[in-house]
Amino acid sequence: MTKSDEPLPSLDGLQRKIDQTRPESDKTPPSDTPPGALGNAMRLGTDLLAGVGVGGVLGYFLDRWLGTSPVCFIVFFFLGFAAGVRNILRNSDKIDG
Amino acid sequence: MSEAVHEHSPLTQFEVYPLLPLKFGAWDVSFTNASLWMMIVVAAITLLMFQGVRRRQLVPNRWQSTSEMLLEFVSGIVRENAGHAAMQYFPLIFTIFMFVLFCNVLGMIPLSFTVTSHIIVTFAMAAIIFLGVTLIGFIKHGTHFLSLFLPAGTPWWMMPLMIVIEMVSYMARPVSLSIRLAANMLAGHLLLKIVAGFVMIGLLGIFPFAFLLIFTGFEIFIACLQAYIFTLLTCIYLNDALNLH
């Protein structure tokens, strides 16, 4: 949370009111259950697929535009793969910690 | 394809057909079965939420309890993944969650139509989220938002490569978001129908039938889980736009 993103004043007031009304025993935030390994596993495949797909499509249209077939397609195909792996790494960071 | 084969195809359930043909200029804006089920979903959500707030009691009735539970659940996701500042966008995120959840769950009713199994529906939602989040990022941070495309601590000689990779990975977000939801719904419903076709083989059909029983429950779980994941990722993307590293 950054300082520049102050919530709306009305929301702030509401939160204060909720905190005052709520009994002390409720104050601790409920422990959330982790999304589960199954959900994570299913996300990985699509992340990789989407990276490669977007990279491939991007390269294909760059080729059509620049007339350099198939250089851009091949380059962006692998860049897309890297992007997919990057997305997986980033998302798994978010979930574990 | 002959009519008899077509009738029993596992793909028939995904067919979009017009119920009320309409033309708007050159566009086909027919009222289809997909439109009908979207309206049923919206009506069901509206009914639940209106019944929930109609009589506000200290000891809630079932309607109020259900709507409060859903509201608290989503507000928990938003707070934990995007911070308090993101509560400004809570109405949008809650709407998305409810729409996806109800589309998925109502799709489990036999003979119903699963709106979210069509990639164009999920992609439209993902594209709105993608454009909205990008816009929010530029409004909040101006051109500084572009630093999202450069991970902190990149050596200078890796910069051109990393920027391109990060941009491709940013553009892959709406694609993976929409494919994940649509593919899960499509695959699950397809599998249910295909296995159902094996039940009629005779006495041994008891095994596919038992599998179907278990798998239907699992599909309902998947329907809720995918709504949760869709919302969770929306919050993670929103967090990237609101809180730059």
N-to-C series of helices and strands of chain A: HHH
Could you estimate the helical fraction of the residues of chain A in percent? Answer: over 70%
Distance between the termini of chain B: 56 Å
Extract low-pLDDT stretches of chain A.
Answer: 27-35
Q: What is the helical fraction of chain B, as a range of percent?
A: 55-70%
What gross morphology of chain B would you assign?
globular
Biggest interface found? A-B, 38 and 31 residues
Largest sheet of chain B, in brief, is: 2 strands, antiparallel
**Assembly level:** heterodimer
**Which strand order spans the largest sheet of chain B, edge to edge or round the barrel?**
1-4
Q: What fraction strand of chain B?
A: under 5%
Secondary-structure class of chain A = mainly alpha
What is the number of helical segments of chain B per DSSP (H or I, 4+ residues)? Answer: 7
Shape of chain A: elongated
Mean pLDDT of chain A: 74
Report on the architecture of this protein.
The complex is a heterodimer of chains A (97) and B (245). With 97 residues, chain A is mainly alpha-helical. Chain A has a domain at 37-97. Chain A has helices spanning 9-21, 37-66, 71-96. In chain A, helix 2 (37-66) packs antiparallel against helix 3 (71-96). The relative contact order of chain A is 0.11. The model of chain A is unreliable at 27-35 (pLDDT under 50). By secondary structure, chain B is mainly alpha-helical. Chain B has a two-stranded antiparallel sheet with strand order 1-4. A two-stranded antiparallel ribbon of chain B has the order 2-3. Chain B is globular. Helix content of chain B is 67%, strand content 4%. The N and C termini of chain B lie far apart (56 Å). The longest helix of chain B is centred in the last third of the chain and has 40 residues, at 159-198. In chain B, a hairpin with a 2-residue loop joins strand 2 and strand 3 (27-28). Chain B has one domain. The chains are: A mainly alpha (97), B mainly alpha (245). The interface between A and B is medium-sized, with 38 and 31 residues.
